[in-house]
Amino acid sequence: MSTIGTHQFDSAILKRRRKVRVFLPSEYAANPAKRFRFLIQQDAQMAFTVRDAELPYGSWGIDEWIGKLATEGVIDPPIVVAVDNSPSRMREYFPLSDEFKLYERFVLEELLPWIHANHRVLDGPENASLMGSSMGGLVSFALALNHQGFFGSAACLSPWFEVENNQYVHDVLKKVQKKPALRIYLDSGIRDWRDLDDGHRGMLLARKELLRLGFREGDDLQVIVDTWFPTMGDFTNSSVKDDKREAALTNQHNEFQWRRRMRAPLEFLFRKQ
Description:
globular; eight-stranded mixed beta sheet; alpha/beta; Rossmann fold; 8 strands
């Protein structure tokens, strides 16, 4: 049986306590000699089904999806280390801020050593991935790009490249000259709660730069534009709360949509080798 444990992580770098939620697949206990690939997930409060009843749109259901895909034989189930966001989320997840520099140090200097010391994870960047949505997608991309010696892939759902007029793309990504040793998954919808494009155009700007650097779609780059919108019937047996269903008909920037799309990034990151 898979498990989800919670840990109170006292960070000397962030000068605050952060909750870390760790998903261990059923194989972890069943096969004590095995080591696993792992995923660092942003916005842990939204990651797992145990939170479905508390969240307006339900959770990402990562635990449910990993179990399903592992049973199908599609992926090698990973360990998921999910870090709760904080009141400083927007700044910590923005790669050009001072708060990001602290969050980056926390991940590299505190979280990664803790993961390796306390869990049976495989070594090497090819076995370590990052994933997040919105600003969590942006920070996942930036951490992977900055630290290719630690991370080999990132999945970014509705990534918020557009923050500060796509400043990260213009000031960082466009200046990269050497192809990063990474695998990148990007997706977005086409409409969000603002009646705008779910960051779609910013994502396509990032895609353009990745293609310039030599990434190849269908190989080390996957880009999905999601044009699907639900009807009221699609919320039956879902975790979307009654008072959010009307808005969710036209807003793709939420956990209901990211949960629905979860097969693609998990297959991209952890498909059987």
